[in-house]
Amino acid sequence: MDLLIRNATAIMTGGSGAAARATGPDIRLRGTRIAAIGALTPEPGERVLDATDCVVYPGWINTHHHLFQSLMKGIPAGIDLQLAPWLSAVPVAYRRFVDEETLRIAATIGIAELLLSGCTTIADHHYAYWPGMGFDGSALLFDIADRFGVRFVLMRGGATKVREIDLNPPPEARPETLDGMLASVEADVGRFHQCGGDAMRKVILAPTTPTWSVHAHELPEFAAAARKMGIGLHSHLSESLDYVHFCRDVHGCTPLEFVQRHDWVGPDVFFAHLCHMQPDEIRLMAETGTGMAHCPQSNCRLGSGIAPAPALARLGGRVSLGVDGAASNEAADMINESHMAWLVHRARDGAASVTVEDVIHWGTAGGANVLGLSDTGTLAPGMAADLMVYSLDHVRYAGLHDSAIGPVAGGGQAHVKYGFCNGRLIVEDGRIPGLDLPSLFAEARKAVGRMLA
Length: 453
Ligand SMILES: [Zn+2]
Description:
Blueprint lengths: L1 E5 L3 E3 L8 E2 L3 E5 L2 E6 L8 E4 L3 E5 L1 E3 L20 H12 L5 H18 L1 E8 L10 H12 L2 E6 L21 H15 L8 E5 L13 H11 L3 E5 L3 H11 L3 H7 L7 E5 L5 H10 L2 E4 L1 H6 L7 H6 L3 E4 L12 H16 L6 H16 L15 E5 L14 H5 L5 E6 L2 E5 L8 H16 L1
Parallel strand pairs: 1-6, 2-7, 8-9, 9-10, 10-11, 12-13, 13-14, 14-15
Antiparallel strand pairs: 1-4, 2-3, 4-5, 7-16, 16-17, 17-18
Helix pairs in contact: 2-3, 2-14, 11-12
The structure holds zinc ion (ZN).
């Protein structure tokens, strides 16, 4: 599609420092790419979209999610629990409901919410795999993402051992064998993984936790297998103090030292959360290029702590943003996540600790960086046309002096006037073309009803 987006009030590029804002007011798209940004005049045959009173951001890149949890929001038994008891009360207890139908409904809900917040790339840490599961969860997720037109990274989770919190697992939580899991990941890489900075589909190897989901001696085998397949590594780490105490008591080291000993640091590795890190761990992250998926809303909701994302970024480390699963984040959208990322560090470290430009950078260019998607996350000529045109037509934006910061500083439900991924229009005037929202609500109510019965 040849397109000219005209007369935007402001353009945030996803870059940092002086490069964070582009002098517009126009953006030209050619096919799947951005052709030009500046003061542009329409060319013959070009469709013109009006962006008056709008701001343009890169499509957000969500680097940590569990889409299957989108039917597990606000479960009363876990609403006021810390991470460990919450895991038992919610994701573990409700795992038996994850069948083909609920996964389809849950993923549709989660992806729709992300799209309407302006997200164009989703990395889903999906760990609902078990021996003899009888349906193809990986294909199902890629298929739904395809229909929405978003970039999708399957971070293929799973466990090879039973956790203490789940000693009598239902069939849906039974562990896989190391060989079985690696063979399955290799098959998914063969079926879905694309190389290149503009991939629409990627696979990452992501055992659910390095501490409790797999045996320590298997970690180097996972790392070696991922590197042989040419894919990245991901997991949860140091989400709560339990990780720190476990590593200290069982392995006599910090969590970062533990994963380093098992070949799990480097530019092809990133971890979700990392709320609890000592200064030498933050330095190790930066020095090795190991990335962070910062999930402040989930961390606040579960009382887990505040990850030292600004400190890591100041050392040149790699920070991205993730919403985490909807079972621990009832607003799984990237505008709210960035709003929380902007606020929470300032509450603790002062008003100069994080800027709106910083959190946009983390949530766009930073996400592209940890996922190895070099052609998205930044608005510049030659980059993929993954971008969001936000209309500032809500009364909350009336009186705003700096329009560019509106969506992040204001938080809440943003209004996407036009949303593009890889040059394709995927959101228009706050709606997703082809999505039957009333039917989705009805399916969700029915699925929740089955869980309550
Ligand atoms: Zn998670």
